Structure formats: C-alpha cells, structure tokens
Amino acid sequence: MVPPPIALDETAVKTKQPPSPLKEGDFNDRLLSYDKEGYPKLGSLMKALPEKIFHVSTAKSLFYFAVDTAACIASIGFLYAVVTSEVYRSLALWQQAITVAPLQILAGFAMWCQWCIGHDAGHSLISKEYKWLNSVVGEISHSIFCLTPFVPWQLSHRRHHTFHNHLERDYSHQWFVREKRDELETWVKASYATRNFHLPFLYFVYLAVGVPDGGHVIPFYGRLWEGQKLSTKLRGVGSSLLSIATAGALWANMGFADFTVVCMVPWVVMSFWLFMVTYLQHHSDDGKLYTDETYTFVKGAFETVDRSYGKWTNRLSHHMMDGHVMHHLFFERVPHYNLEAGTNALTDILGKEGKGDLYKSIETKAYTQEIVKQFDENWFFVNEKQIIRE
C-alpha cells in the first residue's frame, strides 16, 4: 500500500512512439475518420478500440472497492490504536509526531486510492446493470471515507469533463492569463503571492469555500448550482449531511486531538494527492486552452496529459495518472481497471494512423518535487500563446 520512494531524476516528456505492431484481430480493421482540423472523431475512435476495454464488470468493481475499504479501515484503525496506546501517550510531542507521521501518510494514501473508486462511481462505472450501486459506492467511498460530499462533487466533475481545457467553462481549474495578471482582483493577487503555502489546503478551500465552482458542503451557491432542480440540490444536501455526520461522529468519539491526528491529517495527505494528480494532468508546457469559438470535446481531451508516477503507484492509484487521456475521451465508458489496456490500444492506433503526436505522456516519478515546482512557477496562469481563440 505504501507508494514507492520518490525518485530525484528530472521529469522527462515523451510520447509512446514508435507504436508497437498491431496483432491481427486486436482492433477492428478500419481507419479512423477525422474532423476538418485533423482530429479523430470520437465515434470512429471508439469503434477502432477493442470492445473489451468498454466492459464494466460489477464484480470486479466491487472487488476493488472492498480492497480499498479494507485498506482504509486497517490503516486508520492501526493509526488509532497507536494514538490511543499508553506508550504513545507517554512520549513527548515531537516523538509522537515522528511516530505517527509514516502511518498518517499510509492512511492518507489509502484514502486517495479509495477516492479513486468513488471517482469511478461518479462516472457510473461501478455497475451498468445495477445503477443504484454507483450511488451507494459513491456515498460510502466519497461522503464517508473521504469526507467529500458525493453528489456535489459528481456534478462539478461532470462539468469538468464536459468542458475540459476550456478557458472559461472548465470546472476544477481556474485559469488566469499571465499577461493580464496586473488586472487581477486584489484577493487573487494575494492568493498568488502566498501560493506556496496553499498546496495542502486547496482541496478544502475548493469544497468548503466553493472557489471557483460553488459550494460542495453547502450546495446552494456558485455557478455549479445555477439552474439545478430542487431535487438535485436536496440530493446534494444529503451527501453533505452524510459527510458532516461522519466527521461529527468521529470527532465526538475520539475527541478533537485524536480526530485531528487520526482522521484530518490523513485527509490532508489524501487531498494533496488529489490536487497534485489533477493539477499535473492538466498542465504542461505545450498544453492548449480553447474558447467557445475553438473548443471541441476531442481537442480538449487530447490536451490532458498522462503521467507515470512509477509502476506500483500507478497501479495502486487505479491508473488515475497514466490512463488520464483515455479516461477523458471515454469518461463514462472505460472503468479504471481497463485504462491501462485502453491507453496501450489508443497509442497504437494513433501511431498506426500517423497521429501519435496527439497523445501526451510525461514520466513524473519525482512527483512531489514536480508539483511544488510547477505550482510555484505557474500557479493557475496560462500564457496567451497557449490559448486558441480562432
């Protein structure tokens, strides 16, 4: 369950070329069709990919959910046992911190893996046969284990996928044009000036304060909720109350100090993983953003980036990092356990078609250093030349 040691080698950008030879029968024997700008049409790409990568297995989904649930309970339970032991209580404060830090990192990583399962639930990829299972797993995974109200997150995340890499309509990411930074509001400038202190807390701000998309804990304000039906808002309230009740019950039973050490510090670790993965997969030196005049779904999807954090980190994180392009192309069709095979098939097809340059992949084993470096240098800025306006 522990992620591999962070490598210190520099990040390298690569594309998966040349493509591996296609074996007979691997893909449907047809060429892709293209739009007027030379991007493959989504329907033709789907037909060219192996049908098996679109298969959603309820049993397999529930197996991974069970594994990550066990990992969360075991890691947090062991941490709680240590924190409430007489030996731990007898230690000095600095000794206590050193003792629990590795366990908090482990528990936080387990919560991150559990969050990835809830992510599949948000895309209705736990089950296509029993659709109610997606809500059940999502509420348990996100609202309870990860203290992330499931329904509000599901709504905002779908908007993100619908308008990925759109300058104004993308959710989860707030883009600012670097050349116009002198025109930013005072509070935005202050946020930029103090950016290096924000990384562990940005997900909390996103959920609790509702910047930039709207309230996730109090689901009634912000652009996310404009035009939403009352029934949808009530479902959002239900998810929020479930998260609040979970946190409240744990706090009441553990007390503030133990709740902070056992639950909230691992939650901060989880949120760091979530922000790091999300940020790095939507920021690259040659990444493009689009406007209403230039945006298409396929163009936006191919501006996302696959990143490899190392073999086992990728696997334990359910290929959330190294299967991201495939996920953005088919976010409600390919479950996490098929992302690796789907990505390999995608890169082979693009290579065969002479379109391998559309796919971006970056080796990022030094991921902690990379997020600190990128966030310090770029924050939420994008250069004007990266914006395709016409």
From TrEMBL:
Domain of life: Eukaryota
Fatty acid desaturase domain segment(s): 101-353
Transmembrane segments: 62-81, 201-222, 259-280
Pfam family, one: FA_desaturase
Protein's UniProt keywords contain ATP-binding: no
Example GO molecular function: oxidoreductase activity
Keywords attached to this entry: Membrane, Transmembrane, Transmembrane helix
Keyword Metal-binding annotated: no
GO biological process, one term: lipid metabolic process
Protein name: Fatty acid desaturase domain-containing protein
Native source species: Pseudo-nitzschia multistriata
